[in-house]
Amino acid sequence: MKTWMAQARDQFRQTSALIGQLDQKGFTPVSTAPTHDTEVRRDHTLAIIERLASWSPEAFEYPLKVFSTGPVFAHGTWAESLDVEVLEDPMVDPEAIIFDLLTHLISERFIPPSNRDLVFVAGHLGLLRTLLSQSQWPPEDISALERNFAEGRFSQAERFVAKRNPNLLPLFRPTPPRAVLSLLDSLPGASTGNNVRALTAVLPSGVDHVPSVLWDLSLTGAFAYYSGLVFALYARGQGEALIKGGRFSVHYQERHWQGAGFTIVLPEWFAS
Amino acid sequence: MEHFHDIRVAIAKGRILEQLVPRWTKAHLPWPIEPESRQLWFSGDDAGPGAMIVRGPDVPTLVARGAADLGIVGTDLLVERGIQGVLEVGDLDLAECRVVLAGTSGKRPDGPFRVASKYQKITRDYLDRNHFQADIVRLSGSLELAPLIGLAAYIVDIVETGETLRQHRLIEIETIMPSHACLIANPAHWRAKPEVVTIRDRLVQHLA
Prior knowledge:
The structure holds two protein chains of two kinds.
Chain A: H1 2-24, E1 28-29, E2 35-36, E3 39-40, H2 44-52, E4 64-74, E5 77-87, H3 95-107, E6 118-124, H4 125-134, H5 139-150, H6 154-164, H7 177-185, H8 191-202, E7 212-215, E8 226-235, E9 243-252, E10 255-265, H9 266-271
Parallel strand pairs in A: 1-4, 6-7
Antiparallel strand pairs in A: 2-3, 4-5, 5-10, 6-8, 8-9, 9-10
Chain B: E1 8-12, H1 15-26, E2 41-42, E3 50-54, H2 58-64, E4 70-74, H3 75-81, E5 87-91, E6 97-103, E7 113-117, H4 120-129, E8 134-138, H5 145-148, E9 154-159, H6 163-167, E10 171-179, E11 181-185, H7 187-192, H8 194-205
Parallel strand pairs in B: 1-3, 1-4, 7-8, 7-9
Antiparallel strand pairs in B: 2-3, 4-11, 5-11, 6-9, 6-10
């Protein structure tokens, strides 16, 4: 029991240090309820938005930097998590603040707490849709492909892409940015390549223990509200992402909410 | 040059394990399992991944939890469990069989009845699709006994040649779904370990 208690104290200190960093960077805690009528909290993002929706639009000063802690219910079990969100004016890209924070947390060794090799993987729903539209895919086929990826049916998705655009297949597995750019630049219309170039520039790279930044358009996120860039941070050898996040767009109580954020899955973070 | 020493593949024991060796070696991977060994875990080396031999229903759990990077399991078990937490990354085109409805008469059910199966979800979906009214008796094996001892008039079970059914004087009525071995991957390992993708490509591309 002594070991168990020492471990619990250690995890509490690590979480407190992480929250201290969020405080220093100007993020405000928002308390959210783990259960809601007949629903349990599966994710903090919507819970935060529900909480903030009681304020009038005039009360908001963007960017609104918030976080929430507590367990979420996923895959039949509760897991402690820490969720960080930047709500932004609809005219402004929200990713820069999030990636500035992530780069800080990684370079200062808050993520991961031990010395592990990290792999940062980015996908992009907007880019996926643009690419396939440019390749004359009908909208219903694009939706079907996204659904296959979201449900983990990769061999079916691969067959779908191979039949129509086999040249795009490398984009649907983890690929270094240079190879992705070279492929995109070879396609008609250079805008997709330029978009990836701009996005790659803001991703948390260049930190000594983040050797790999990869693009993978099969990464579409677990929630329907993701609308653009989605990402995950993995520690090699660990079977679950340490961090998952992306840009979101939500319509709630007749208002549009957009921003970017990420969730730190605390049990995975402690184990890393 | 990739090294595979820290890659683990969970393999379902039974017909998948029995038929996998030629596929594995065609993919230029050294077969890690020692013949005649009763061991369940064999470590990998630079040339090839390690393997663990487990019950079919446990393969997706081990992969979802990250204890194995890849898993090889029948599509019947994957449909039964659902693919939450894993990626279905390739068909292996081996251990082909089918999930069937069988009974003593060979006639489709008419009216309420009982059916014994280890496949609760597949059976329930089949019954609903066909507007059958039936109670499912949950058994984990030796299903062929159920009609013979009066426990249930029908069974939903997996068959390869149908010989076991015939030996128990049961008649195949309808194929509910075909099944074959498929390759599943842990999503984090798939994206963070390039060797996992390499092994998948080798196993899938050496099918012909």
